[in-house]
Amino acid sequence: MEIVYGTQNVAKYDSMKVLFKSLEDEYGLNLLSLNELDFSFPEVDETGANTLDNARLKAYAYYDIIKKPVFSIDSGLYLNDLPDKLQPGLMVRRINGKRLNDEEMVDYYSKLAVSQGGKIAGRYRNGICFVLGDGKVFEYAGEDIASELFYITPKPHEKSVEGFPIDRLSVHIESNQYYYDREFEKEEAWNTEKGLLKFFRAVFDTIKQGELA
Predict the structure, then answer these.
(1) Which of 157, 150, 132 is nearest to 212 (CA)?
(2) Domain range annotation of the chain
(3) pTM score, two decimals?
(4) Is residue 154 predicted with pLDDT exceeding 90?
(5) Which residues contact 24 (CB under 8 A, 6 or more apart)?
(6) Which of 62, 71, 201, 202 is nearest to 127 (CA)?
(7) How far is Cα 21 from Cα 101, in angstroms, rounded to an integer?
(8) How far apart are the C-alpha atoms of 158 and 169, rounded to whole Å?
(9) Which helix (H) or strand (E) holds 164?
(10) Which of 40, 81, 154, 186 is deepest in the core (most CB within 10 A)?
(11) Residue 81, C-beta contacts closer than 8 angstroms, at least 6 positions apart
């Protein structure tokens, strides 16, 4: 069964492909991205009030074009003790009306950390919408697919992955290490990964049991 991740962000797809590996084997799935499909996709106007709204807008827009099972995820960044006017929320990349590239994001959030005393704690909140077919939709935005609390610091890590600029500034709170330097993070499994696996297994178990046949 082909499943489409509704993104053209290569880094996000590669990360999801790793997460999906056990699911592909267990349920006989093949995960694709929008980049692998012979369609032209418009930029979806993400005007939702929250992450689930935006995930839904994207998933429905892509399903209307490809007519294949497709899911989209939307994230918002929420930083502790930050005034509302500076809170990224759903506009992580769009600052003062401008869409930032990766380097501009690193520069902006690095300076924001400096302005808050050298570091700032925050977390990502996520929403997911999975459209299997007409009238067959799964949605979720619970705490178990949010990230753990982490620090954003001023100094970027030397490692850079296109599409994940804030990861260069992200530090694990308990160990005070950059996430890129943590050798045992995969054994621990991030909160988001565990929550997404639980969500996907619930979806695919439902399909397997024939409830959506």
Answers:
(1) 132
(2) 2-208
(3) 0.88
(4) yes
(5) 30, 31
(6) 71
(7) 30
(8) 10
(9) none
(10) 154
(11) 116, 120
* Alpha carbons 117 and 105: distance in angstroms, whole number: 19
Residues 163 and 10 sit within 8 Å (Cβ to Cβ): yes
Phi, psi of 134 (to 5 degrees): -60, 120
Q: Is 143 left (phi over 0), alpha (psi -120 to 50) or beta?
A: alpha
The topology under which CATH files domain 2-208 is Maf protein (3.90.950)
Class of residue 11 by CB neighbours under 10 A (exposed 0-12, middle 13-18, buried 19+) = middle
95 torsion bin: left (phi>0), alpha (psi -120 to 50), beta (else): beta
At residue 211 the predicted structure's pLDDT band, cuts being 50, 70 and 90, is low
Residue 97, helix vs strand vs coil:
coil
Could you tell me how many residues make up the chain? 213
Nearest to 20 by CA among 168, 207, 211, 199: 199
Model confidence at 81: pLDDT above 70:
yes
